[in-house]
Design brief:
Translation Initiation Factor IF3; 5-stranded mixed beta sheet; RNA-binding; 14 helices; alpha+beta; BirA Bifunctional Protein, domain 2; globular; Rossmann fold; 3 domains; 7-stranded mixed beta sheet; 482 residues
RNA sequence: CGGGGCGUAGCGCAGUCUGGUAGCGUAUCGGUUUUGGGAACCGAGGGUCGGAAGUUCGAAUCUUCUCGCCCCGACCA
């Protein structure tokens, strides 16, 4: 009986089929559900609460670095979207258009924003006149529509939620500094809050944002060996300021085009969170970002029922007072065993059990979601032990994910070894690259893997390009990607 | 957007080949006893078989079209 750990029924095993497991968990844990429109999902309260925690923490980090929130329109007139040539070329295939308003056919069709550079830049050109107006540091939390062909809840949906920062600076160097500052915030957030280790770096020309000079990103490795881009930060240089006429008078009294950045993360982060940490029993949420850090399950037996319930309520109040997000599951219609499985499926990191024996001994049972290890703790020591356990779980999840990434990162030399490793092992493939578009495409055509991130911009320790054999300019990570 | 698979009760499925008026498990609702790993018993409700058109005396079942979802590719956060 104690041998069988298959407590949760009705979800596919993560080890057997990650995709199926992923969908099962999302539906059974009530994170999201499909809507009547293709590729559009409903984010249910439990899923949205995770987003609120992501949003709250990132928002604080943005504000601490001087950014302010604003809100721009959902629609972008076609003429504005077309102003930056590369930009419109990149997004055209996935834009949804509004052509009728009320009963009238519109004179100019309106794009539902696939990203907001165009509308925001058109406003910036009105607002910015002098170096004294800079830097301008604005972020917006918004929804976005991209008409994707293949969708998957959280990872790629037709409509998604995100934040997009759009900043304006008086020099290239300052814009570059901002781009890297945000990249660092993203990395810190991913690792400290989501407990997902990421690799920061530059995108290749092939993979960069339409309209950017340089695109930086953070990349994570998922359990199936595919890479997931978790955030991007672009140095737009003067590409958009020239297209949208954002000019300022600099300190030398010369008119100059402004230097810009843009950056974003999306509800995709929730998808990463689900895949990175979960197991055969369901989700495992890092304490920092879990809607409930603990769930209290009273085992209300026989004539001790009232007794136990009131003790459980006291524990709940105590945790609430100490700002530990918890849920008291005192529903009478489910048995304790059912609740254990349910909350494991929902990924709550610590379960607190309180039954007749515990009330007698003035103790509680804490159960770690990662390994189901039980800790018996005196009621007086609850806070200290619980806080320690939550910290431990946060760290363990990060460590687990990092070990996985390291075990699935292989260094290779030469085209054959590169393509063979991708085919047989997947994961990140570290190798030298000469910097040519042609070499990257050659790999893509053979094994459909691309350069996820350039991790060493300057030199590559005299390695050779894995494809052409010429001297390598960069060290890069190849991978298949989401 | 190409190749493959699937849409029948909230969920998981059988029934489709061979046409005859819809069933199983689970969940739900009411009641009683229960509660330390998805409780037991008694009773009840719930489906225009994804949608449309056609063939037929008769369609979940056959034909055509269409919508959606999943998997594998190509494209993207």
């Amino acid at each position: 009986m104690e041998k069988n750990n298959d407590f949760v029924k009705q979800i596919t095993k993560k080890s057997e089929n990650l995709s199926k497991w992923y969908i099962d968990v999302i539906k059974k844990a009530k994170l999201a559900d499909y809507s009547p429109m293709k590729g559009m999902m409903v984010i249910r309260p439990y899923g949205y609460e995770i987003w609120e925690l992501i949003k709250g923490n990132l928002d604080r980090m943005f504000k601490e670095t001087g950014h302010r929130n604003a809100y721009f329109p959902l629609f972008i007139p076609e003429s504005l979207l077309k102003k930056e040539a590369e930009h419109v070329k990149g997004f055209a295939p996935e834009v949804a258009w509004v052509t009728i308003g009320g009963n009238e056919v519109l004179k100019e069709k309106l794009a539902i924003r696939p990203t907001s550079e165009a509308i925001i830049c058109s406003m910036y050109s009105k607002w910015i006149k002098s170096w004294r107006d800079l830097p301008l540091l604005i972020n917006q939390w918004a929804n976005i529509v991209r008409w994707e062909k293949v969708t998957k809840p959280f990872l790629r949906t037709t409509e998604f939620l995100w934040q997009e920062g759009h900043t304006v600076h008086s020099s290239y160097e300052e814009a570059e500094e901002e781009t890297l500052k945000i990249l660092d915030i993203y990395k810190t957030f991913a690792e400290k809050y989501l407990a997902i280790p990421v690799i920061p770096g530059l995108k290749s020309e092939n993979e960069k944002f339409a309209g950017a000079l340089k695109t930086y990103c953070i990349e994570a490795l998922m359990p199936d060996g595919k890479a997931l881009q978790m955030g991007t930060s672009h140095n737009l240089a003067q590409n958009f300021s020239k297209a949208f006429n954002i000019r300022f008078e600099n300190k030398k009294q010369k008119i100059e085009y402004a230097w810009q950045t843009s950056w974003g993360v999306t509800t995709r982060l929730i998808g990463a969170l689900i895949m990175a940490h979960g197991d055969d029993s369901g989700l495992i949420l890092p304490p920092e970002i879990s809607p409930f850090q603990t769930v209290i399950i009273p085992i209300a037996k026989g004539n001790r029922k009232q007794d136990i319930l009131s003790e459980a309520k006291k524990i709940y109040d105590k945790l609430k007072k100490n700002k530990i997000r918890s849920f008291l599951d005192d529903r009478d219609s489910y048995t304790p065993g059912w609740k254990f499985s349910e909350w494991e499926l929902k990924g709550v990191p610590v379960r607190i059990e309180i039954g007749p024996k515990d009330v007698e001994k003035k103790q509680l049972v804490l159960v770690n979601r990662i390994n189901r290890k039980k800790i018996f703790v005196k009621q007086d020591n609850l806070l200290i032990t619980l806080k320690k356990l939550l910290k431990e779980i946060q760290i363990d999840l990060f460590k687990r994910a990092k070990d996985f990434r390291e075990n699935n990162t292989n260094s290779v030399e030469g085209f054959d070894e590169l393509t063979e490793t991708i085919e047989t092992k997947r994961g990140f493939i570290k190798t030298g690259w000469c910097g040519s578009n042609k070499c990257e495409i050659q790999v893509k055509e053979k094994v459909s893997a691309t350069i996820r991130v350039i991790i060493n911009e300057k030199n590559s320790n005299s390695k050779k390009c894995a494809v052409c054999g010429k001297k390598a300019k960069h060290t890069v990570l190849f991978a298949k990607s989401y």
